Structure formats: C-alpha cells, structure tokens
Model the fold of this input.
Amino acid sequence: MGESVTFLRKRTLVSTKPVQPPCKIHQLSALDLMMEKHHLNIIHYYNTPLGLQLGELSTKIRDNLSETLSYFPVVMGRLTKDNINNDMGKWVIKCNDAGLRFVEAKAKGSVEEWLENLDDEKENMLVHWEDMCHVPYHWSTFYIKVTEFEEGGLALGLSCAHMITDSVCATLFLKAVTDILVNGRVSVPPFFHSLPRNNNNNRLLLLNLEKSHQNPNNYLINTYKSYLESPSPLTAKHYKTIALEFKDDMVQSCMNLAQLNGPTNDAYSPACIALIGLLWNCISRVKGMRHGLIDMSICSNMRKILGLDQGFFGNCMIYNKVYGNGTRVDDLMSSIKAIKDAIENVNKDDILELIEWLEHYNRDHSSSFVVDGDKLEFINLEDMDPYSNIFTQGYEPIRVSYYSESGVEKDKVLILPWRPNEGQLSKIVMITLPSDEVIKLCEDQHLTRYSPLILMDPKHK
Done:
C-alpha cells in the first residue's frame, strides 16, 4: 500500500505580495490557544478536468497558491512566544512571510478506484504533516499536498495547526485557492479581527471573583472547567475511522422518528440533532452501556450566534457537554431531548462570558492549557460548503474527508454535508472508535435499519 503514492517534491511557497515591514503580530484568542495539541487533516477529491495532462493541475494550484497567500498573512507566519504582553509567554503568529509547505505526489490508478477501496490509513497518505520542531519559529503551521492519480483524478490535502484555524475557515482557505484559479479573486476574503467582547461592564465582576473563577450560573464555563480538571485518559486501543453516507430519505426517517421537523437554532439543524441522537444511542450500546447513555460533548461553529462575518479567520467552535442521565440506549426521544436541552443552554452572552473566563484562566497559568471534550465527541461541520470549491466549471469535489487529530486517541463523530445533488438533508458521518467497536457499530440493528452506505470500510486492510 505504501508504494501506491509516490512523493515527488516539497517546496516552500510565499505570497506574490510580501507582508510589508515591520512584521505584524497576530494575537491568538483563548479559543485558539486551547487547541495547541491538535491539528486538522482535510482531503478533497476531484475528477481531473478534461484536456489536462498529469502534473498540469498541480502546477496551476501551485502558481495560484502564491497569489492566494497574499490574502492570508497568518497562514505564511510562524509561531513565537509573546513575552511583552504576557510575562508567561503565550503563542502568537509573527506574519513574516515565511511561507507554507507545498508537497507534490502521484498515485497509481484512478481516483474512483482509490475511493472504492478506502480506509483511514490510505487517506493519511494524501496529507503531509510535520510535528512542531524544537525551534517552533522555523516550523510551518500549514501544509498543502497535491496528489494526482496516473489514470485520472486529484486529491487536495490540507494539514494545519488547529491553533491557527478551525475546519470552517480552513475550508474557506481552500475555497480561496479555487476562487483565484477560476475567477482571479477571492469571493469570501478573510478577516483577522479579534473575537467579540461583552460590553456589559457588570460582567467584568465575574473575572474578579476568587481564584477558582467559578460562575455556577454559566453552563458553558462549568463545562469547560470540568474538562480542564478531568483531562482525557490515555488509551492503548487501536482506533479506526469509517465514513457513512446518510441519504436524504434516511435522515428524514430518523427526524420523523425523533419528531424533529421544526427549526432549532443557528448552530444545529434538526437533521444534525437527529443523527447525533441516533449515533449517541448506537455507540453507547456498542460500548456495553445498558443503564444509561455515555456522557458526550457536542461541538459546533458559533459564528452566526456571535454575529461574526463569514470570513472570520480563527477558532470559533464551542464544546457543550451532554449527560446520559440514565437515558435508555433505545430511547431516541429522550436522547434528543437531552441534546436539545444542552443546546438551549448556549447563547451569545454565555459564550462571551466563556471567552472572557478562558482568557482570565490563561493569564493565571504558566503552562499551555488544553481544553478537550469528553471521551466521546460529536463535531458538527454541517454548515460548511466544501463542494463549492470548484477548480473549473463542472469539476467540484466528488468526496471530502475531515479529521481532527490530537495526541490522544478518542471516540469522535464528525457530521459533514454531502453533495448538494444528494439532497438537502443528506450527510456524511465520519466515526472514529476502537476497531472492534466500529465493526460492531456497522452491525448495530438500530443503525442498519436506516441502511447507511459505508464509504470507508473498517474491515479493509
């Protein structure tokens, strides 16, 4: 398998318009800093446009990346410690035009053949990632890998430090690359401003409490405090990732059973809530839970709730804890109610309070703080639009895959959109579990009743 992808070359690409001196410093937010130990892997698969020879599209992407980077000085920057504004030294980005790493590779066969026989180990061959070196200032936080298939097709892989951005704006960066190639301009320019602040001065009283900084009335602060006090345990289990396709009618059937057809809020659609409830039940059952669901976290994009523009560049995903509370593993209605109750505990004011609390916590701790969700995480990425990242007319992505990686293996479910022509409710779900559990999940009768198509086989070797 290792010989099916051949490395060709690695370059460093810089902008066509270098950052002008003095070099600017980009401050990372509290939401950015807590993702220090995480990185993102994103793969978009394309058919090769007719008339292009092997290597031509890679060259076009490489040439257009340099122009795209002129909009994204942070992407070309390097991490350094800021000891001026903070005696403890927190990470900032120095926009020094150092560039991103660009890797070219080729693969045997066609992209269609690759997708027919796919697993997470093969997908890992389509991205390039290097862990932070001992001199972080020389380390690139962004990597693009372009793999062209000898018999047609292309995989565009992006790996980046999660501390710099989340999946939403990483996808917008890839869209900027395709926009430049097709239209010569970026349709959604990035904005590098700070997260919004709460203007209510009374809320500053919260930050002057005793060193515990507890606010029993803020559900989110208490949730994050529990994460900080109870880090995820290490595990020696072998994990696998699968991808399931839920067609429009499957999702509608699940929504009907859960009696979910009305609007929810700006972060979760009824379709997403129904799938989270279904999979929460199924995964709990696979894990042997009989007297209640396993506690879990849901994480979603809060840009709309905070009133941020579409091009906001940085992390804006918020974790929210959902308790099993003795809910039966076959009681979909009760699990849906628990999810909806947790969602209703999230509003703009509480998010702003959480951000201020995290900033205060960060100032009081000399070492980097990392907030992770529960051992089981659901990450909602349904509001992205990766299928609009079109290189040329008629050649949109035929598949996408997203991974959120960290140093700790954990149970994780990513809810992704599916191609628009597959139906408004259709979703791709990427599930990471211990290998024995992921096979049991595919055989779970409550899941198989919806007949999801397995796009990435857990049994593939």
The CA atoms of residues 121 and 461 lie 9 Å apart.
